[in-house]
Structure formats: structure tokens, C-alpha cells
Write a structure and sequence with these properties.
Elements (H helix, E strand, L loop, with lengths): L2 H6 L2 H9 L5 H9 L6 H20 L12 H8 L6 H23 L5 H7 L8 H8 L12 H26 L1 H4 L8 E3 L2 E7 L8 E6 L5 E6 L3 H31 L1 H27 L5 E3 L26 E6 L12 E5 L5 E5 L6 H15 L12 E3 L3 E5 L10 H17 L4 E5 L8 H17 L3 E5 L3 H9 L3 E9 L4 E8 L7 H7 L4 H10 L2 H83 L5 H18 L10 E2 L8 E5 L4 E8 L4 E5 L2 E5 L4 E6 L15 E2 L12 E3 L5 H17 L4 E5 L6 H12 L3 E6 L9 E6 L2
Parallel strand pairs: 5-9, 8-12, 8-13, 10-11, 11-12, 22-23
Antiparallel strand pairs: 1-2, 2-4, 3-4, 6-7, 6-9, 13-14, 15-21, 16-17, 16-20, 17-18, 18-19, 23-25, 24-25
Helix pairs in contact: 2-3, 3-12, 4-12, 5-12, 6-8, 8-11, 9-11, 15-16, 19-20, 21-22
């Protein structure tokens, strides 16, 4: 990518924002050093890594490379065999632990995050260094006694010698013959040796070696001769301890140097993973989406410098830019006005016109910057349907000046940049030119701008330009592959709206603005007389188009708001109906349980009455009739309270012969073949089934058979049933239902069971009086899909159950 373009489009500022989300310096440097890639698969992989990192952060908000340190200086020192300090070795340990934990976390979630797992494969699993450093150093950087056997022995001896030395010194300061010569009864140290503070006047009274004296000279610090040997022994042990600690640190340094390559690779992998997490966090902060990155199809159009080719023209590439609700990432995301930029595959140039400070330059920078971000693996602040082609190079010439006082040197600078771009750009490039043809004589500038744009379009180079020259509006309108666009201006507030409109050129608002600001009407009228009438008619037509478009946009917004409100009300209604249904079921369930209790009491009383009648030798026929009635009531009570879905959907449109419908109870589509008074016959493949109108959902129409009569059945309310296409189960419980309800349920159940290829089904109708059983078996005998049926075995319910075999 062109370095000047990256700076012009403020790509470096985006990288600074990205680096702010990194956890340590290695990844921050990597963030600031990254460049957009021109390789489609590399860019797509980085986008996928960012997507997985966002998903992982959402699932596990605490995930990070926590504890990792930037070890580059440490590793360079180890490579030179400079002995590492304890805190440096602890940094190595903490980084290894962070890498190990991160790798294990990714391995646990491997199926969901394949790209992150691939990154983590470069992370080592401890290398044994963690345990070695842990055994040698405490978390505060102190070398432990367990670091070596020799060090442990030295420190034990050191403690013993220290205790002996302190005991002898304590006896001396407690001795009245010595204490009277001391300035204070304290044991002190000078130059690593223990001393006593003796008054200078009595230094000859205490035999010893003077190591120091106080600033006033009133006190000398003497080492009594009686403890010199013990001080020497203690000092020797201190030096031995120092040498052993140095040896241990040297060994640990050598171990780090031994794994230098692995540790450097681990550090690079951690930096890359942290950068991936940073891209995810930055995307979340921008409320960004993953753009669909597309390849540039077609052949490369060579840079011929404008010369004609003698060979057959190559097939031109087809770039595509569709950025919806795109926002500049460096602007305040709460207040920035999103724009829609859409360039169809055959569009080669977009000419943006409009007032100064209206957002033309920001539009160009937004497109260029989002393209660079996408090719760097960053998600872009736009809507989820956004997609953009990958460009091998992007060139931009954008000036900072926004007024008419542009000097010749500025014009020369722009021309120099454009020449540089023309020499390097090809059909796989994106070229962005701001204020094309500005900074010089308007007539010559317009001619030059038109010529440059023609040249770029002929070379099949995707180009975005802004301009104030009206000639380019006409050029864009008349040239295939070139499209006008404009930033809008509100004449009421005299402020730009920053909305981008594709397909329409910008209006000339100079006279309208002057008139609203109070310019005398006579001057405005005279100015209008100087303008070509054709241009005035064009401006009037543009005004009307803009008004109609604004009215359409407001109507769409109102319709969308109304749709949103209706969906909200529908959701609230559905929730309320669910609550009502729950209350209904609760009431019915309470009633059913109460009825069960009462039936138990009745059965108990009947049992006692039967015993009394038997003892009295009275006939029992009347009791048997009562018992049959009680059993029928019990079957109704035993029936579960079914959940009823609320009536929320209607069959749309009339159902005719030949209509294509969905039988929702079966989850299958079919064609209406016959229409009865209360049932409709639908053909599903080779099977014909009967269904109620409320069980059908209109899908479309198939051509009716020749000569068939067009019979219309009016629509009526139907119940929402979720079509699952699954087996209805091998058992249907009809107990407690009336005969007509049971037959309707049986008919639909047998159709679903047949479609699910069930070999047999069990229909539970209970014993009772036998009326429901007879009705069910008559229906089974007439059903075309039932081959045979029989009563259930003793273990299946006997005569209370019928087992039906279905055809294959």
C-alpha cells in the first residue's frame, strides 16, 4: 500500500486507536506496524479471527493474555548470557503461565474457535521452565532455600552463626563494665560487620577495630576483638550465599537461553493473539460488523500510460462497494451521520458534488479507510449487509483546504500527486481524488478534471472524486460506468445534512442561500436572468426529485416505525395470551384434581354400598350402571389439560382447486384436489389427506387441472401450529373426548403417522361403555392407510386400546 495514502486517509490514527486496546508493548508495536494485505484469503482469515475473538469475549468476558510480559529485552540479555535478575525470570514464568492457560482455554473451546486454536498452537505448554523457576524463586523475587541443596545448607549455617554473634553482642551490651562506655545499648552494622556505638572519649577502654564514626565525632563504631572471628565467619557465609545465588541465576539464565527460539516464537504468537483481541475490542467499541470481502474478478488491465493496445482487450475486473450505514471510525460514533455508498460491479467512477463542509471529503475518507480496515482484518463501522472488493493498492489525493483561496503551489502539489497515482494505478486499484480540478482557472480546471476522469474510466480504474465543477455532473450523467452522487443541504437551517445520495448530482444552492440570507430580490432576479434557462429547469427538476425522495424517506421511516410498533404490540398480546392460557390451564387442572378427589369418595361409597347389598342379597344391576357412568366421567377427568395456542394467524387469501397449501399439522406442502363442506382434500405426493381449512396455510397456486370448476372457500381464523415434520409418536390418547372430536384428532394423527412411516400405532380410547371404542374401530376400518387393527394385549390395556397396523 502507498505510504502517503495511508497517512492521508488517517490509517495511522486508526492504528493508534487499535493499539490502545492491546495489553502489552509487543502487541502495541505490532498493531502500529501492521499494513493492509492485498491477498484475499489472508484478509478473510484475519476477519474470521476477529469474529471468533468477539464471540469468545462475549462468551468469556475475562479472557485475555493476562500476566504476559514483553520479554524481548530479557531474551536479548539471555542470548548474550547476561545473568538475569529474579524479576526478569519471574516475567518469563508469568508469560509462560499465561501462554499455557490461553492455549488450554482455546483447546477446550476448539470446535467453536478454529482460527484462534490455530494461533494458539505456537504457544508452548510450559517447557519445564515454570516448575524450575517456581522452585527457585518466590513470587516476590527472593531465591528460595530449595533452589539448591548447597544454598539451603549455607543459609542454615548462616542463621546459626548469626544467632551466636547476636547472643555474644547482647551479652556485651548487657555487661555493666562495657555498657558504661557505650553511647547507646544498640547493635549496629558498618560495612557488613556488626559493631557497637562507643563514646569517642572511651574508645581506648574497649579493645576493637574502629569501622566508622558519627558526623559529630562523638561516637565511634567499634568491632570488639572478641567477635572478630565470628564476624569473619558470618561474612564468609554471606559471600558463599551470594556466590551460590549467582550460580543459580546463571543456571536459570542458561535454561532460558536454551529455549530462546521457542520463547521468541511464543512472544510473537502472544502479540498476534493480543492484537486479535484488540481488533475485537475495537470492533465492539465501534459497534462494527464483519464486512463481506470479495475478490476482484476479471483480468488485470495493464498500465499503458494511455497508449492504445494492439492485442485483444482483457476482461476487466468487476469491483464492488456496498457500504450501508457506514461511519467514519475516528468521528464520534454517537453523532456522526451514517452514509450509504453503493457502486455496482459495472460502475467505475463516483462523482460527488455538494456544498463546502457538506461531508464530501469525509465520504471519500470513510470509503477509503473502511477498505483499508477490512483488508487489515478489522471489522468496519457499518451495517451487516456491507461488502467490498479487495484492492491491491489504494491511492488518495485529499487536500486539507476547504476554501477558494488555494494557491498555485497547492494546485501543483495536487497535480504532482495525481501524476504519481496515474503512473502506478491499474484496474485492481482504488483511486480517491478530492476537489478534482480545483485551485486553478475554473474553465481549465473543469476540462482537466473531465479529461482525467475519462482517462481513469477508460483504464477500468475504480475512482471516487469530489468536485464543484457542474461540467462533471453532466459528464457523469452521460458516461456509462460513471454515477453522480451528492451531499444534501437543508435550505431551512442553511446547514448541510451530511446525507449522501447516490444517483443524483448536487444542487446549486448559491441563489437560494443568498435569498434566504436577505439578498435584495432585484439582485436575485437579475442573477437568474444570467443563468441558462435549461440549467434553471434542471435545478427545479432536481429540487422536485429531492423533495419526492425526502417524502418517500419519511414515509418509509413512518412505515418502519408503524411496523415496529405493531410487532411490539403483537409480542405484548402474545405474552398476555400466554399468561391467560396458563391461568386457564391452572384453573382446569385444579378442577380436575378436585373431581378426582370426589370420584375417589364416590367409588369408596359405591364399594361400601355393594358390600351392603351383597350381604342383604339384593340385585347389583343398578350399581353396575352407576359404575359405568362413573368410569365415563373418570375418563373425562383423567384427560390432560391441553395447551391451546392463541388465534394469531389467518389463512391468507381464498383456497381454490389447485392452490398450493401447507398442511401445518403434517408439516407438508401439497395441492388442493377437492373441497367439501367442512374438509378439504390435499394431495401430498402419492398420498391424499383430508384436512380442515384452519389447518391449511396458503403457499401459492398451482395450475388447476383442465376443466375443473374454480370453487372458492372463504378464509377463516386458523390456529398457529408449528410444523415440525417429526413423528407424532406411536400413541394417541382419546379418553374423555366426544366422538366427533376424537374422529377429527384420529384422522390427522393417522395421516402424520403414515407420513412418518410408523409401522403401527396405539389408540387409547378406554373401556367405559364401549361407545368410543366402536366409533374408533369403525373409522380405522374405513381409513385407507390402515391395513389391520386389533385389541391391545393384556400388558397394553386390553379392550381399552386398539393397535392399528399402517401401510408402507
Amino acid at each position: 500500500m502507498d505510504e502517503k495514502t495511508l497517512h492521508t486517509l488517517e490509517y495511522d490514527k486508526v492504528l493508534d486507536c487499535l493499539a490502545g486496546y492491546c495489553s502489552f508493548s509487543a502487541s502495541r508495536e505490532l498493531a502500529r506496524a501492521q499494513k493492509p494485505t492485498a491477498h484475499l484469503e489472508d484478509a478473510r482469515q484475519k476477519l474470521a479471527e476477529t469474529r471468533e475473538a468477539r464471540q469468545l469475549i462475549e462468551a468469556i468476558p475475562t479472557v485475555s493474555i493476562g500476566g504476559a510480559r514483553d520479554l524481548r529485552e530479557v531474551l536479548r540479555a539471555a542470548a548474550r548470557m547476561v545473568v538475569l535478575e529474579p524479576h526478569q525470570l519471574l516475567d518469563v514464568k508469568y508469560t509462560l503461565v499465561a501462554a499455557r492457560n490461553l492455549r488450554r482455554a482455546f483447546e477446550r473451546e476448539g470446535l467453536d474457535y478454529p482460527y484462534l486454536v490455530e494461533l494458539s498452537l505456537r504457544l508452548p505448554d510450559g517447557l519445564g521452565l515454570v516448575d524450575v523457576i517456581t522452585n527457585a524463586l518466590s513470587d516476590r523475587g527472593e531465591i528460595l532455600d530449595s533452589a539448591s541443596e548447597k544454598l539451603g545448607k549455607i543459609r542454615r549455617d548462616l542463621k546459626i552463626e548469626h544467632d551466636r554473634l547476636m547472643a555474644q553482642l547482647q551479652r556485651m551490651i548487657s555487661n555493666s563494665n562495657i555498657a558504661k562506655y557505650l553511647q547507646e545499648a544498640l547493635i549496629m552494622q558498618r560495612d557488613g560487620r556488626y559493631v557497637l556505638p562507643v563514646r569517642a572519649d572511651f574508645k581506648g577502654r574497649v579493645k576493637g577495630i574502629i569501622h566508622d564514626q558519627s558526623a559529630s565525632g562523638a561516637t565511634v563504631f567499634m568491632e570488639p576483638l572478641s567477635i572478630v572471628e565470628k564476624n569473619n565467619a558470618y561474612r564468609e557465609l554471606q559471600l558463599a550465599e551470594r556466590d551460590e545465588e549467582r550460580r543459580i541465576l546463571s543456571e536459570l539464565t542458561a535454561l532460558v537461553a536454551e529455549h530462546l527460539d521457542t520463547l521468541e516464537d511464543m512472544l510473537a504468537a502472544l502479540a498476534e493473539i493480543d492484537l486479535t483481541f484488540a481488533r475485537a475490542k475495537y470492533a465492539n467499541a465501534l459497534d462494527a460488523v464483519e464486512p463481506k470481502l470479495l475478490a476482484l474478478t476479471g483480468d488485470r488491465r495493464p498500465n499503458t500510460g494511455g497508449r492504445k493496445q494492439t492485442t485483444a482487450a482483457p476482461r476487466p475486473p468487476s469491483p464492488l462497494i456496498r457500504l450501508y450505514q457506514a461511519r467514519h471510525p475516528l468521528l464520534d460514533q454517537e453523532s456522526v451521520v451514517p452514509i450509504d455508498v453503493e457502486l455496482a460491479p459495472q460502475t467505475r467512477a463516483l462523482v460527488v458534488t455538494g456544498p463546502n463542509t457538506g461531508g464530501k471529503t469525509v465520504t471519500l475518507k470513510t470509503v477509503g479507510l473502511l477498505a483499508l480496515m477490512a483488508q487489515s482484518g478489522m471489522h468496519v463501522p457499518a451495517a451487516s449487509e456491507s461488502e467490498i472488493s479487495i484492492f491491491e493498492t489504494i491511492y488518495a489525493d485529499i487536500g486539507d483546504e476547504q476554501s477558494i483561496e488555494q494557491s498555485l503551489s497547492t494546485f501543483s502539489g495536487h497535480i504532482t500527486n495525481i501524476i504519481h497515482i496515474l503512473e502506478r494505478a491499474d484496474s485492481h486499484s482504488l483511486v480517491i481524488l478530492d476537489e478534482l480540478g480545483a485551485g486553478t482557472d475554473p474553465q481549465e480546471g473543469a476540462a482537466l478534471a473531465r479529461s482525467l476522469l475519462t482517462h481513469l474510466v477508460e483504464r477500468e480504474i475504480t475512482t471516487l472524486v469530489t468536485t464543484h465543477h457542474p461540467e462533471l455532473k453532466a459528464f457523469a450523467h452521460a458516461t456509462p460506468g460513471v454515477v453522480n452522487a451528492s451531499v444534501e443541504f437543508d435550505l431551512e437551517t442553511l446547514r448541510p445534512t451530511y446525507h449522501l445520495t447516490i444517483g443524483l448530482p448536487g444542487r446549486s444552492n448559491a441563489l437560494a442561500i443568498a435569498e434566504r440570507l436577505g439578498m435584495p430580490a432585484v439582485i436575485i432576479f437579475a442573477a437568474r436572468q444570467e443563468i441558462d434557462p435549461a440549467e434553471l429547469r434542471a435545478d427545479d427538476l432536481l429540487d422536485e426529485i429531492y423533495r419526492q425522495r425526502e417524502a418517500s424517506r419519511e414515509a418509509r421511516m413512518r412505515a418502519e416505525e408503524a411496523r415496529h410498533q405493531s410487532e411490539k404490540l403483537r409480542a405484548e398480546l402474545a405474552a398476555r395470551l400466554e399468561e391467560i392460557e396458563d391461568e386457564r390451564r391452572e384453573v382446569l387442572e385444579d378442577a380436575r384434581q378436585e373431581a378426582e378427589t370426589e370420584l375417589k369418595d364416590v367409588r369408596s361409597q359405591l364399594k361400601e354400598l355393594r358390600a351392603d347389598l351383597r350381604r342383604a342379597r339384593q340385585p347389583l344391576e343398578i350399581l353396575e350402571q352407576v359404575e359405568e357412568q362413573i368410569e365415563e366421567i373418570a375418563e373425562e377427568v383423567d384427560a390432560p389439560v391441553e395447551r391451546h395456542e392463541p388465534d394469531m394467524v389467518q389463512v391468507h387469501g381464498p383456497v381454490r382447486l389447485g392452490s398450493k397449501v401447507m398442511v401445518r399439522t403434517l408439516g407438508q406442502e401439497g395441492i388442493v384436489r377437492a373441497i367439501g363442506e367442512d374438509k378439504i382434500e390435499v394431495q401430498i405426493g402419492n398420498l391424499r389427506v383430508r384436512a380442515r381449512l384452519s389447518d391449511l396455510m396458503l403457499r401459492g397456486s398451482a395450475e388447476a387441472e383442465e376443466g375443473q370448476r374454480k370453487t372458492v372457500v372463504g378464509s377463516r381464523s386458523s390456529k398457529v401450529i408449528r410444523a415440525t415434520g417429526e413423528s407424532p409418536g406411536i400413541e394417541l390418547d382419546l379418553r374423555g373426548q366426544r366422538a366427533d372430536e376424537a374422529l377429527d384428532k384420529l384422522d390427522g394423527y393417522l395421516d402424520r403417522a403414515y407420513l412418518a412411516r410408523l409401522p403401527w400405532v396405539r389408540i387409547i380410547h378406554g373401556k367405559g361403555t364401549g361407545k368410543l371404542r366402536n366409533v374408533v374401530r369403525e373409522a380405522l376400518q374405513q381409513h385407507p392407510q390402515v391395513q389391520s387393527f386389533e385389541s391391545g394385549k393384556d400388558g397394553e390395556g386390553g379392550d381399552g386400546v386398539t393397535v392399528a397396523s399402517l401401510g408402507s
